């Protein structure tokens, strides 16, 4: 039976990039995997067909041979790819942490290739920024001490030119089966740590680990509107894994420094504005700060301390929202201090006029004292 064209199998064009190939293979593999379609021979055949196609087209050398000579150019280099679930790229390369060992890659269903080592550790970097930087967004340069792939051996742990050999303990499967009575358990091979390969001559720089300690300099883009406690993820910038393993991720934890004027609550900003009792009584205009510059705030006459004024659209645009918040200004009445003799005399004269108004100029004060008088009368009667 003649084989279908590999590009046709994956449903991609001949100029498809590797990312497009990977996406197409992942879609077909998820749809037709035997674990999802038990006892469905057609689905199993489609899965094998897609795996074989991806194995060839994802390898630049095999793809070049296939493009030039067709199936005849790659049949000898296929190994166990078409007949089983082994060979080529491990299934975990495609599905990563989503399915993990549910599908198990080459190590579970026979064939060669072994299993990948566990990915490198994720790292966290704490970054402190100002409120202005959080609101507008910024690009920051950070230095992260971590493990990176060894440049000398390109991360495989072997001395250049020496290569690796198939692990004799697991026969390249990356896993061994331990049996006791009726129970049988599959475990990662203790000698090759799941790679299926053994290093004959370790690299002198990384001593066979495939990674070395280094301080990386990275640029991280902080999106506009980010809030205190949010994280930015840099995929693949975490700690490098061992030979054959992918790197972990770097999480940049953002901390926003306390601002001397504003406090943030979601997309809204809050501030307190000192207000003289003259402006509070007579009304007027105040220049209040915003993150975009000064704006005039109109204070109506007879404004009481603690009153909240809302400036629409002067807050923050959320990182996951198109809505811009507001700036809420709370006016706080400021009591005059360090008065001279003339100022004191003027205030005393003013107070006398207020007292003569029989509560007209200070209704809250009058109502409060009337309430206190009633309370004491009730207590003593």
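Sequence proposed for the structure above (381 residues):
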């Amino acid at each position: 039976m003649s084989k279908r064209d590999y590009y046709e199998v994956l449903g991609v064009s001949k100029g498809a990039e590797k990312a497009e190939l990977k996406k197409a293979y992942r879609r077909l593999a998820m749809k037709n995997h035997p674990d999802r379609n038990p006892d469905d021979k057609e689905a199993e055949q489609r899965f094998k067909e897609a795996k074989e196609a991806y194995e060839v087209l994802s390898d630049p050398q095999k793809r070049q041979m296939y493009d030039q000579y067709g199936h005849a150019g790659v049949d000898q280099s296929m190994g166990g790819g078409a007949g089983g679930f082994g060979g080529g790229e491990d299934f975990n390369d495609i599905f990563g942490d989503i399915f993990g060992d549910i599908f198990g890659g080459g190590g579970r269903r026979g064939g060669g290739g072994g299993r990948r080592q566990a990915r490198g550790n994720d790292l966290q970097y704490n970054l402190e920024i100002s409120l202005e930087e959080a609101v507008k967004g910024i690009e920051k340069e950070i230095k992260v001490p971590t493990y990176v792939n060894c440049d000398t051996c390109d991360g495989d742990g072997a001395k250049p030119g020496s290569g690796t050999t198939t692990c004799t303990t697991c026969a390249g499967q990356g896993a061994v089966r331990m049996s006791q009575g009726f129970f049988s358990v599959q475990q990662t091979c203790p000698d090759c740590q799941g790679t299926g390969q053994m290093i004959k001559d370790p690299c002198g720089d990384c001593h066979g680990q495939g990674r070395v300690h280094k301080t990386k300099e990275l640029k991280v883009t902080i999106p506009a509107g980010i809030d205190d406690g949010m994280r930015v993820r840099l995929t693949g910038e975490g700690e490098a894994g061992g030979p054959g393993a992918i790197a972990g991720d770097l999480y940049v934890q953002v901390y926003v420094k306390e601002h001397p004027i504003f406090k943030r609550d979601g997309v809204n900003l809050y501030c307190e504005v000192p207000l003289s009792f003259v402006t509070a009584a007579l009304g007027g205009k105040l220049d209040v700060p915003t993150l975009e510059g000064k704006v005039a705030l109109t204070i109506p006459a007879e404004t009481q301390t603690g009153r909240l004024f809302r400036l629409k659209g002067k807050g923050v645009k959320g990182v996951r929202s198109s809505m811009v918040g507001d700036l809420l200004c709370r006016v706080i009445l400021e009591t005059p201090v360090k008065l001279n003799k003339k100022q004191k005399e003027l205030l005393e004269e003013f107070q006398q006029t207020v007292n003569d108004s029989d509560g007209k100029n200070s209704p809250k004060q009058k109502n409060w004292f009337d309430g206190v008088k009633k309370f004491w009368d009730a207590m003593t009667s």
